[in-house]
């Protein structure tokens, strides 16, 4: 799990004379070895592994075999600077300066969450404080914003507004007390469709996230449009879909009817072209033969007689 980006990290030591040095993963830390600037010999060890040694007279350095050696260097006389601190760097560091030995304990404190990206209101989550370098019997505990104490690992089921605020991870080492302060900022979550369950074992309140009733112990006001708004958008989407589908059906039917009309007209034209043509026939009698022209040799007809007038 990686550190949560929502947290504001602050490290504070109650006792200024503590022999432990606190840091966190990825940071750079300096371990002091007295106040002398000049020396004859200097050696740094991580446990029993040599990190490096310096000859004060010749100024030559000898590198050791410790895994932390590539990220370590001597700075400001006899101090040891470590860059890119890791959890496995925690433990005892021994500085031998002109025969005098000094032991310094490096404590690497890391805070992680699950899910690692963000904590959302009304969702499950885990907050964990780990201190590498402490003795096995050491106690690490959280102090909630309301003053209640909890173990080094807190499970939120679900996360409520009561969990917002400053959380203090406290532990002791060699009689000294150390605190780390984390400011939890809660991000609003998406609307929940199921009823919220009870919070963790130290959270005695029930949070109402986007609920429509007022159950006993409900302390938070409903937020967002909730389930009713979700169904409203679903109904709008379904209605729009059916409107579009109806318009498509109407367009398809219109085009189909046009094609049928064209096909029917084409068939009628073809049938008319296949019918035989009928011509009109006249039933009138034939005309009389035309008389021949020219003179006739027959006897001319007699002239009509005029009647006699009586006196």
TrEMBL record:
Keyword set for this entry? Membrane, Signal, Transmembrane, Transmembrane helix
Q: What does the record list as coiled-coil region(s)?
A: none
Q: Which domain of life is it from?
A: Eukaryota
Family annotation (InterPro entries): Ig-like_dom, Ig_sub, Ig_sub2, Immunoglobulin_dom, Tcell_CD4_Cterm
Endpoints of the signal sequence: 1-18
Pfam families, A to Z = ig, Tcell_CD4_C
* Name of the protein: T-cell surface glycoprotein CD4-like
**Transmembrane feature ranges:** 230-254
Task: Give residue ranges for domain Ig-like.
Answer: 5-105, 122-169
């Amino acid at each position: 799990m990686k550190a949560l980006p929502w947290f504001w990290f602050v490290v504070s030591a109650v006792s200024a004379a503590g022999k432990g040095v606190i840091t966190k993963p990825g940071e750079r830390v300096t371990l002091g070895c007295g106040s002398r600037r000049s020396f004859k010999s200097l050696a740094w060890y991580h446990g029993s592994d040599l990190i490096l040694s310096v000859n004060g007279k010749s100024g030559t350095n000898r590198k050791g075999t410790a895994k932390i050696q590539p990220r370590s260097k001597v700075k400001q006389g006899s101090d040891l600077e470590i860059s890119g601190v890791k959890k496995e760097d925690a433990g005892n560091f021994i500085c031998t300066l002109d025969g005098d030995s000094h032991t310094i304990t490096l404590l690497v404190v890391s805070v992680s969450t699950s899910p690692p990206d963000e904590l959302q209101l009304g969702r499950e989550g885990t907050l964990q404080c780990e201190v590498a370098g402490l003795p096995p019997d050491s106690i690490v505990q959280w102090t909630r914003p309301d003053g209640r104490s909890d173990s080094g690992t807190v499970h939120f089921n679900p996360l409520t507004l009561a969990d917002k605020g400053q959380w203090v991870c406290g532990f002791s080492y060699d009689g000294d007390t150390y605190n780390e302060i984390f400011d939890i900022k809660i991000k609003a979550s998406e609307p929940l469709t199921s009823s919220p369950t009870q919070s963790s074992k130290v959270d005695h309140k029930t949070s109402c996230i986007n609920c429509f009733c007022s159950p006993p112990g409900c302390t938070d006001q409903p937020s967002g449009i909730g389930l009713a708004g979700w169904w409203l958008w679903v109904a709008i989407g379904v209605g729009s879909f059916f409107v579009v589908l109806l318009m498509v059906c109407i367009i398809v039917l219109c085009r189909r009817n046009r094609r049928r009309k064209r096909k029917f007209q084409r068939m009628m034209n073809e049938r008319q072209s296949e019918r035989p043509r009928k011509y009109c026939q006249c039933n009138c009698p034939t005309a009389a033969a035309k008389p021949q022209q020219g003179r006739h040799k027959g006897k001319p007809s007699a002239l009509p007689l005029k009647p006699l007038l009586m006196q």
